[in-house]
Design goal:
Layout: H1 15-46, H2 55-68, H3 71-74, H4 83-97, E1 104-108, E2 112-117, E3 120-129, E4 132-136
Keywords: Membrane, Transmembrane, Transmembrane helix
């Protein structure tokens, strides 16, 4: 009568233990995926809306971000696809122009915003998109000239 050949190495886990650990992987993976989705959703919900609700908020927001030299925050107020690159370039120009604390941002009527820094003056039209106000990075054709300081 043939005898069953025994393995040279004894098994450390019973057959049922492998099944249980395999069953735990799927719920654990789903729980991790759900937690990751929740983190992404909360992060998006906490991100401030781009642009500003009023010309006053736009002017003060742009002034604050330029004083801080924060290109990432400034990009929220710039209209268009190249907002990040434009904001980075603008912050660099302001830093290069001299004392960043000597920046003034003011409204020119209801349709334009003007920024003045040492040796630098820029005017933007105010663009409206989805009910929010932004700086239009395209130079306006009818900008008010910066008076000499």
């Amino acid at each position: 009568m043939p005898t069953a050949r025994k393995s040279a190495t004894p098994t450390t886990q019973p057959q049922g233990a492998k099944r249980k650990s395999g069953r735990l992987l799927l719920p654990l993976g789903l729980a991790l995926f759900a937690a990751w989705i929740a983190v992404v959703v909360v992060g998006i919900a906490k991100e401030p809306d781009p642009g500003a609700a009023s010309p006053q908020q736009l002017t003060s927001g742009v002034a604050e971000t330029l004083h801080k030299g924060d290109a990432e925050s400034l990009a929220r107020y710039v209209n268009g696809d190249g907002a990040d690159a434009y904001a980075t370039s603008l912050v660099d120009k302001v830093k290069d122009s001299g004392n960043a604390g000597d920046i003034s941002v003011s409204r020119l009527g209801e349709k334009q915003v003007q920024m003045r820094a040492p040796h630098l003056c820029m005017t933007w039209d105010i663009a409206k998109s989805d009910g929010r106000l932004f700086l239009d990075p395209v130079p306006p054709l009818t900008s008010v000239a910066c008076p000499a300081r």
